[in-house]
Write a structure and sequence with these properties.
Helix content: 25-40%
Shape: globular
Strand content: 15-25%
Structural class: alpha/beta
Radius of gyration: 21 Å
Number of helices: 15
Distance between the termini: 49 Å
């Protein structure tokens, strides 16, 4: 299957260039031809007025938490978890998670997302939804070792890795997902590390999300969560660390040395008043950073485009430095940085030989005029409603703002049905 996107602006090598052509053969970008022969292609997409970027990457999510959107707002993190979320999660089942995952995937595709990282429960159903919808994902079964079900979760994680890693034509990769140091004791985390080495799997974990978490871990173990994880060998497996808000210079030195990749979730961190992660310092130290929405219960949407704009703005105000996260850096967090955070080596760039994960953005809205600086317009003026076309692995999932593979009316109906099912059981 050959596809051509013609006469389009492209974001490539940190520069936007106009009037380009992108050729796709099967799942990969095959080139950027100057001369095109229409009869060579099965599908031609007119790119006039569009900007092509690498597909957006959401590096941290709990996708089926769409069911909790607007359920528990304006609360402290631990109150939110202990009083509202964890009791309700006990009522989740396969049916609910599948339906809510389909809703979340549809929302992400509509916002230009082509790949995401997820940590949650009933992950076979999440993987099934990923396989059916055509999106790309890094998945892990969430594990809390301080509960009686901890060992069962470890067994399920091993089976899930064996069943799904590399499946869906390679679109699914699997990590191990210990929740956090405050829910997983050191002995349990050692078991996770041993399993990671056995499977050659990487680890996705929440770290240093709140000031209270860091203080409690230091009081309990005499060291920061970062140093504790390093001592336990978590970082030797390859690690995606969500949040990393409350980290000091010593923590950052460890993270840089151990190549910890960070999922920055500005919207969720702001809403839960967790703080603002020092990603400008991380980037200066060579730490890979991508953007995440976190779950829809703490955001309350899965619009990664919005996270890019937040990241471009809040660090300026927090540091009183308007140069700290420039437009180009913000866009890179959304694309290449996110792909690197998930460990992808052939996703995240518009480059020959890379996977054809591409987002096309319509630039004809009034907020795109006058057309002074395209990079600035992309970072500060554009929004997810400008997303026109989404391609993953060479397959068109959204075109002219219409889904090509999803029954949206059915997805809405099932989301409401399963929401009612869950809350009627509480």
């Amino acid at each position: 299957m050959k596809t051509l996107i013609k006469n389009v602006g492209i974001y490539k090598d940190h520069v936007i260039t106009e009037h380009q052509n992108i050729a796709i053969e099967d799942t990969r970008i095959s080139g950027f031809p100057d001369i095109i022969h229409a009869d060579e292609y099965d599908t031609i997409i007119e790119g006039k007025g569009m900007l092509a970027t690498p597909g957006f990457v959401n590096t941290h999510n709990h996708i089926a938490m769409t069911v909790f959107r607007s359920y528990a707002d304006d609360m402290q993190l631990m109150d939110w978890l202990e009083k509202k979320i964890w009791p309700a999660e006990d009522k989740l089942d396969s049916d609910i998670v599948y339906a809510q995952t389909m809703l979340g995937i549809a929302e992400m595709i509509r916002c230009g997302t082509t790949s995401f990282a997820d940590m949650y429960f009933f992950m076979n159903d999440v993987a099934k939804a990923v396989s059916e919808t055509g999106i790309r994902a890094s998945l892990c079964r969430g594990m809390t070792g301080c509960t009686p079900s901890g060992m069962q979760a470890l067994k399920e994680s091993k089976t899930f890795y064996q069943d799904w890693n590399g499946k869906a034509d390679g679109r699914i990769t699997v990590m191990l997902g210990p929740h956090a140091p405050y829910t997983c004791a050191p002995d349990y985390l050692r078991k996770v590390v041993a399993l990671a080495h056995e499977l050659h799997a990487e680890i996705h974990i929440h770290l240093c999300e709140t000031k209270g978490e860091v203080e409690n871990i230091k009081k309990q173990y005499g060291k920061s969560p970062i140093l504790l994880m390093d001592d336990l060998g978590i970082f030797d497996c390859g690690c995606l660390a969500a949040h990393c808000v409350w980290v000091d210079d010593a923590d950052l030195e460890i993270m840089a040395r151990k190549h910890v990749r960070v999922a920055h979730n500005p919207g969720s961190n702001l809403k839960l008043a967790s703080g603002i992660a020092p990603i400008h310092t991380m980037l200066q130290k060579g730490i890979t950073v991508g953007l995440g929405t976190d779950g829809a219960s703490s955001n309350n949407n899965l619009d990664i485009f919005e996270e890019m704009r937040l990241a471009a703005l809040i660090h300026k105000a927090n540091t009183l430095d308007p140069l700290i996260i420039p437009a180009e850096t913000a866009v890179n967090l959304l694309t290449e940085g996110g792909a690197k955070a998930l460990g992808y080596t052939d996703v995240g760039k518009l480059q020959e030989g890379y996977k054809a994960d591409i987002t096309l953005i319509n630039r004809e809205g009034l907020h795109w005029y006058p057309k002074n600086d395209m990079m600035s317009l992309l970072a500060y003026s554009a929004n997810s409603f400008d997303v026109d076309t989404v391609i993953v692995d060479g397959n068109i999932l959204l075109r002219n703002k219409e889904f090509t593979t999803l029954d949206i009316d059915k997805i809405r109906f099932e989301a409401e049905r399963t929401k009612d099912k869950l809350f009627n059981s509480l």
